[in-house]
Amino acid sequence: xxxxxxxxxTFWAALVAGLALVGxxxxxxxxxxxxxxxxxxxxNPNGEWSWxxxxxxxxxxxMPIAGPLYGEALxxxxxxxxxYDKYSPCVWKNMADTWLHQVAPGQVSLHPGNGDRMAIVRxxxxxxxxxxxxxxxxxxxxxEVDVFVLETTTGGTTTLFSVLGTPSSQSFSLTTSVKAGDxxxxxxxxxxxxxxxxxxxxxxxxxxxxxxxxxxxxIGLACVGAYLKRRTxxx
Length: 235
Prior knowledge:
Elements: H1 2-26, E1 33-35, E2 49-54, E3 61-62, E4 65-68, E5 76-79, E6 90-93, E7 108-111, E8 118-124, E9 129-137, E10 145-153, E11 156-166, E12 170-178, E13 183-190, E14 199-208, H2 211-234
Antiparallel strand pairs: 1-14, 2-3, 2-8, 4-5, 5-6, 6-7, 7-14, 8-13, 9-12, 9-14, 10-11, 10-13
Helix pairs in contact: 1-2
């Protein structure tokens, strides 16, 4: 009786151990960080995300001013200058249930400003890992824009993706390694003037599991398999 009881305890211990190791891997397919979901109308930065602008690709200044785009309450925005200055770079979200300014409901849009000032969404890594970065700069308004995905580390800035003078949507699927504090910038700049340049951005950032994590999950399942095989032989 005790032997049977111990076998049951051993089985459940092996099963729990296996699921505990495999469980986290089941979530690896989901995006841990997502725009537009993570946009905030009141926080800058908001966790790993921040909204900013720059005159050059190698720099980033957080946008200091929050307010509704063109005074429309359902269009929360961040600005580099006065909130109603239509010449300022801005990052904003369409919270309405209809298309506005060529931006679909729920989308976050980047609009560059005068003086070749770029609008930037920045993601700052909280850990050392390899990343999957999948997203799209949508066509938005009719103006041509320059779009970039940049990685900034202590060693400098690297261009991971760029298209110049595009009036159409541009998709990207990237992998890169980062350390805590490294930044990934999604940039929209002027190409032929700064009017009609609304450019919606969707992006999912997912840490890629290390091989040791996969091995640990396999070990957990192997424990369960070995127990079941042993039980079959002893019957």
